[in-house]
């Protein structure tokens, strides 16, 4: 059970975030070749690792810890075109799900990326804990993916990740209220300053994820231990995600 006295967001509140925000987005990009790995974790274990005002979001009485490798491409701002050498890179994040004032979103414990400029921009303007890393994704066949990563960011806890997975059959759209919907239909992200005295919320817009089944053939990871989080136990809930075009709005203090 959650230790929070604040009820989780309603399904209508979750569905409302699918609506595209007003105004002009700050960034546009494409996300593809995702592997969603999720483990159930008692909310009481995650809550102490969150900023004081954020509450762990729960599904069936459990919080969820995710590890998500993927490819980012077609990166550009609202006023600049894509810049070769900076418009495509690999990313790997450790995340959980939270809510504040009835608004559900994602909280990132870390986001490793291969692009040094993207790391600097995200840390400076989005208050997100991006870290530099070396990564590689290979596709030995049409349905097979191999992803390796090693963190290189100075002063950050060392971490490595290796995974091989096979993409299976396409899934129907995630049913509202289902676990797949809870884990993947997220259109808001939260961040904080280093002292966790200020919170920021940013909006994201994209079409619902085109999901497929996936089988993890090999998995090694030391990502979560550096955050003081519980070592992940048991097999994860697995989804593969196809490509979506994404828009991101500026972070706002909340």
Features:
Acetoacetate decarboxylase-like; about 250 residues; 4 helices; mainly beta; about 10% helix; single chain
* Run of helices and strands: HEEHEEEEHEEEHEEEEEE
Number of domains: 1
- Could you give the distance between the termini? 26 Å
Would you identify the regions where 5 or more consecutive residues have pLDDT less than 50? none
Instruction: Based on the coordinates given, report the CATH architecture.
Output: Beta Barrel
What is the residue-averaged pLDDT?
92
Largest sheet: 15 strands, mixed
Structural class: mainly beta
According to CATH, the homologous superfamily is Acetoacetate decarboxylase-like
Number of helices: 4
Work out the radius of gyration. 17 Å
Number of strands: 15
CATH domain class:
Mainly Beta
Helix content: 10-25%
Which topology does CATH recognise? Answer: Acetoacetate decarboxylase-like
In short:
The protein is mainly beta. It has 4 helices and 15 strands. The protein has helices at 11-16, 43-46, 116-125, 179-184; strands at 27-32, 34-41, 55-56, 63-77, 89-100, 103-113, 130-141, 144-151, 160-170, 188-192, 199-205, 211-221, 237-241, 244-248, 252-253.
